Amino acid sequence: MILGNQVEWALHCVTALASAERGKLVSSKALSEFHGVPKEYLSKCLQQLSNAGIVKTTTGPKGGYCLAKPASEISFLDVIEAVEGRRKTFQCTEIRKNNPCLSEEGKKFDRVCEIAQVMFEADESWRAVLRKRKISEIVDTLTQSIGSEVLAKSTNWLTRS
Length: 161
Description:
Layout: H1 5-19, H2 28-35, H3 39-51, E1 55-58, E2 64-67, H4 76-84, H5 114-132, H6 135-146, H7 148-159
Antiparallel strand pairs: 1-2
Helix pairs in contact: 1-3, 1-4, 1-6, 2-3, 6-7
């Protein structure tokens, strides 16, 4: 499965908003410049996050985005599903029924396809990991990986008015 670019953008934007002072607004222009992504496409992504209740938006010259709830309540899966939707990663179309060696009676399967079962289990495992991981964990590790000074500069850059 390949996730679209907007998933990466959304995760980084939500993390940036989580790093900012609670309730401090960050403009889509600042987020797009900071991450080096097209503002028009990022705005669509931010709108999807807003529709999902992950971020709040305020319009106007001093408007922008902030988290709608604490980062500890936002999972990676929440963000991914806001952007990509909640569809399963595998769709079984029952091609096993096309086997020309089976009689019509033999094509009546009473169990889930064995291949689909493995794929459904893998999908749920992937989702379980993403459901468990919260945005707040990433914010906590940012200080260690980039340092508190760079994190503070980044947050100030994003929230400058």
